[in-house]
Amino acid sequence: MSDKKDKILSVRGITRDYVSSGGLFGKSETVHAIKGIDFDLYRGETLALVGESGCGKSTLARILTLIDAQTSGELIIRDKPINIAKNKISREMRSRIQIVFQNPYGSLNPRQKVGAVLEEPLKINFPEMPAEERRKKAMDMLKKVGLLPEHFGRYPHMFSGGQRQRIAIGRALMLNPRILVLDEPVSALDLSIQAQILNLLKDLQDEFNLSYLFISHDLSVVKYLADRVMVMYFGEIVEHGDRDQIFNDPQHDYTKTLLAATPKTSIESIRARVSRHKASA
Ligand code: ADP
Ligand code: MG
What we know:
The protein is of the alpha/beta class. Helix content is 39%, strand content 25%. It has a domain at 3-20 and 31-96 and 177-280: Rossmann fold (3-Layer(aba) Sandwich). A six-stranded mixed beta sheet has the order 6-7-8-3-9-10, with helices on both faces. Strands 2-1-4-5 form a four-stranded antiparallel beta sheet, with helices on one face. Residues 57-58, 183 line the site of magnesium ion.
């Protein structure tokens, strides 16, 4: 699975502050959303980022996917430090890391048919590509994410939540990224649908040799999918280790608290659901 030698992303000392204006008479206030984050991501692995709501997970996700700039620290891709506030980012660099959000409906344009949703990244990044080729690539992707050719001309509202997340995953893969940042990708879905999407993610990872940064507050999902786990608490990584170490021998008090708050049955049940789904697939 994961080849430890092939490092594809390094994060060094990344911070992000948000400064609020404080209103008419109020003093401006600074929120240190994330503080000094360090980690490496290797080819083909799933690194999970867990922590409760508001701890800074999405802030980090936006920085990694070049949507937002860090306040300080370095993002290093192929030995090159990247900072969108300072460097001009090439099309190739932007396409390397893509994101999938929690709410597939919010991230899809309701007025765009599925075919157009999938074709859009190609249209923007490869304007010279012939329409026929673009259409074929989108059709191929539709199949890879488990949808049907007749879905090509339908609108997002005509799909279920799980199908919409398939569309969002397909769109994220259209530019052949190396890395997918998955920000709570199954949190809004019914449990049985979660298992299907997790299986799809596993299959796509194998097919494309993708690296995942998988963000979740749900440890049962993380236990199923992750190779390594980072635990975030108030903007800092307080524990970082292989999945089995984190689950069997947690070191930090916060990790222990998180584990204690996750019923064993939910870990068992997601595994059962996933294997049941596999058997019937
Ligand atoms: P998570 O994804 O773990 O729930 P976020 O990264 O969304 O956490 O938020 C981390 C902290 O940063 C929170 O305190 C949040 O209120 C604050 N924050 C996030 N985005 C902004 C923003 N655009 N402006 C001001 N504060 C923000
Ligand atoms: Mg979030």
